[in-house]
Write a structure and sequence with these properties.
This protein has 172 residues and is mostly helical. 67% of the residues lie in helices and 0% in strands.
Length: 172
């Protein structure tokens, strides 16, 4: 195999962070508002969302590199659906990062800071939804359209995958 499969290795971090961010954000917002934790812990969701965005960009770049190879066995429309979902995910993640700065901007305003915390939480939930969408489209590439088969030594020159022989079948 002449190419390193980076995309499947990288893509799991932004998706995992997208799943965890609503829990982390809501939990820290409650902890800060109830004075269980100091406000400075709010840097954690900002840093994690920044990591989500950066690793999402890396995943998208690695996916673009793999697009030509996967395109040998996957319909172009399925790849486009995944790519568009990934672009949308990155934009929503960027907006989510901006909203996570809201509580820091409203830190001294006790009337609007709860709204800023709520908007930050809603933004992370939106990122989760976008992450689900891109993950679903990626899973469809692999499990429905057989994108991994493009990297298999069993793939033919034309890109069609040959089924392995069924060793469990009765030989009589």
């Amino acid at each position: 195999m002449d190419t390193v499969l980076l995309h499947p290795k990288i893509v799991h971090l932004p998706i995992t962070l997208a799943m965890l961010m609503p829990i982390i954000t809501i939990g820290l917002a409650i902890a800060v508002k109830r004075s269980w934790l100091p406000f400075r812990v709010w840097v954690l969701p900002i840093l994690l969302q920044g990591t989500l965005l950066a690793t999402g960009v890396a995943a998208m770049q690695s996916g673009e590199r793999d697009e030509e190879i996967a395109g040998r066995v996957v319909p172009e429309q399925a790849i486009e659906t995944h790519e568009e979902a990934a672009e949308f995910f990155l934009w929503v993640a960027l907006v989510g990062l901006i909203f996570l700065f809201g509580p820091t901007l409203r830190r001294r305003d006790q009337h609007t800071q709860p709204l800023a915390f709520a908007l930050a939480a809603v933004a992370t939930i939106a990122v989760l939804g976008a992450g689900y969408r891109v993950g679903e489209a990626g899973g469809e590439l692999v499990y429905v359209h057989g994108a991994a088969n493009a990297y298999s030594t069993a793939a033919t020159v034309e890109g069609a995958f040959q089924e392995p022989p069924d060793h469990d079948a009765d030989s009589d």
